[in-house]
Sequence to fold (201 residues):
Amino acid sequence: MTQTQNKTLTFTNQKNSSITINLTKSWNHNETETDFNLSDSSIVLEIGESKTVAVTAIDYPYYIDTYSGSIIASTTDIINYSLEIPITISVISCEGVSQNISRVEILTFSNSSYIKEKKAFGIPQNVTITTGNWTETSSITIDILDPLHSSVSGYPKSVQTNSSGGYVDIWYVLGPTGTYTIYVNDSANTINTTFQLVSCT
Fold:
């Protein structure tokens, strides 16, 4: 499911001759996560004339984050002139609930210290779980507990780390909503994280 938000930019010609304004996007994000479109890439303004350009932000609620870019407005009719208009799109979780997750990524592991990244999604959804810095080509265990503290279907399970000590596991989430806990452990260490799964429908 995608969501759109519309804003408008108004350009006014205060010069003594007609001008052409060219509009381009500066956007370095994955367009399958969020993007924006312009209703026009070029507008012609006569003396004193004003025109609006629609800016449509497109977000996919699976990817909670803040995205920044800009619109470059330039003209060469009278002088070489360029203006950069900042664009920020913030994707937040539905109904003000703390973020649900489409990917749990534990980026580092050193004793009990780790970093996790949370993203939003509507269920059902594939969730990718990754951790690193385990013993290379060793066996570790993943367990996921549902809101009733029971292991979800298919877990606990054993996974094999790669030659760099990392792994990737895909969990197909069906619900129910509530608080989940992911445990990852080997013979010496255990890490865990909790998150809220909510319905965005």
In short: Residues 3-91 form a domain with the Immunoglobulin-like fold (CATH 2.60.40.2310). Residues 95-103, 107-114 have pLDDT under 50 and may be disordered. The longest strand covers residues 65-75.
